[in-house]
Amino acid sequence: MGEDEQLVFISYTSGDRDRVEPIADALIASGVDAWMDKKRLKAGQNWDFEIRRALDKAAVLVVFISDKSVTKRGYVQREIRLALEKAEEKLVDDIYLIPVLLDENVTVPDLIKDLQFIRYNDEAFQEHLLDAVRHQLERLGLAIEVAQNEAEISWQFYSHREFRDGIPGCEADFRLPRLSSTKHPMVSQIGDIVRGELFLELADLRYQTLLPDPEEFNFGQDKYRRTHTLDASPQTPKVKGRILSLAYWLHSYYARAAHPNHGVSTYCFLVDPLCYIRSLEMIFADATVALDAIRSEVRSHLVTIQGEDGDEHVDRDWIERGTETWDDFRAFTFEEKGIKLHFPPYQVAPYAAGPQTALVGYEKIAAFVSPVFKSALDIEYVGLGEGTFSTPIELGETGV
């Protein structure tokens, strides 16, 4: 991995800052690129925007758990659930999240009770934490190498950054893909397609700077408050059969807006011959029945997950409004066990709940998939009926 792909995100509740800050200092002094909001955020920057994009770029997350954090309703559950989902993106189930117990008798959240903890009160705590971080980064690099070898496709990312001061100004930070394969030479075109799509987003952002409002912006303001910002951070590419999926976290902030926007753009391709799967509807022979099945699975999952996150009243109407048509499922990736649907804030839950995801197992929709995509996904033998399989195949449980 490149240096900019080894970011270590420090997650903690504000009440533990005095204990966590010296630990972050020690990691930084040891050469670790540790990101802690108190140290990285500059005056005038949008804290929500910067924290979210740092979290999405992080290779490892160190989450500090204490009596204070577990009593903050929903805090630990949401942070840890996001970390576990990102662990799946990193290709190895246990390489992303490092839990640190700040208090001896703190109640460990059920989501991570089976993980290996590091205890703050251990005599060699600093040494153990540094070893764990370095070990996780090494394993992540190895996991990505293994995934590329198995897919016979190589990928890397390079940076595109630009900044133009103005009233308003414009700032962009992209990680753009470059793919190659001797087995599937057309995959090199994926980089061109994704770059084109992302630069269209950037062109729209630049257009907004041509519409200055002297009543809203002036050079006396802090530049962060008068700058439109767009950040595109890729997740690890996924290859299922002969289909490659690439998802990007898109973070945008329009100057003087109430809050930033966070969303996901996805790009899925049949690799040989190279075909762009622009909509999920394309893969189904019976799209009407498939939509009903997907709606049912996603809605059930979202109700369950939002309830577990501590929401006292899950808004089922909100979920239904955001999962009605094929366009509502426009962000999707093909995972090992099913199709993952990605939803930005506001689509199926309040902004504060953040982006949401749901996994629809292949066993739920295989009967409606067209033959060419069944073959491409290697799901020909997934049964025609729910829970029925033509040949033994381990799919696991549906859900994220």
Which short descriptors sum up this protein?
400 residues, globular, alpha/beta
Shape: globular
Low-confidence stretches: 384-400
Terminal CA distance: 26 Å
Mean pLDDT: 83
Biggest sheet record:
7 strands, mixed
Number of strands: 15
Derived structural class: alpha/beta
Content of β-strand? 15-25%
**SSE pattern:** EHEHHEHHEEHEEHEEEEEHHEEEHH
Any idea what the radius of gyration is? Answer: 22 Å
Assembly of the depicted chains? single chain
Q: Kindly state the percentage of residues in helix.
A: 25-40%
Helix segment count?
A: 11
Question: Would you kindly provide a written description of the structure presented here, covering whatever features stand out?
Answer:
With 400 residues, this protein is of the alpha/beta class. It is 34% helix and 24% strand. The protein is built from eleven helices and 15 strands. It has helices at residues 17-29, 37-40, 47-57, 67-70, 75-89, 125-151, 188-208, 287-308, 316-321, 362-365, 371-377; strands spanning 8-11, 34-35, 60-65, 97-101, 118-119, 154-164, 169-180, 227-234, 238-240, 243-253, 261-271, 274-277, 332-334, 338-343, 356-361. The strands form three sheets. Strands 6, 7, 8, 9, 10, 11 and 12 form a seven-stranded mixed sheet that branches. Strands 2-1-3-4-5 form a five-stranded parallel sheet. Strand 1 (8-11), helix 1 and strand 2 (34-35) form a beta-alpha-beta unit. The model is unreliable at 384-400 (pLDDT under 50).
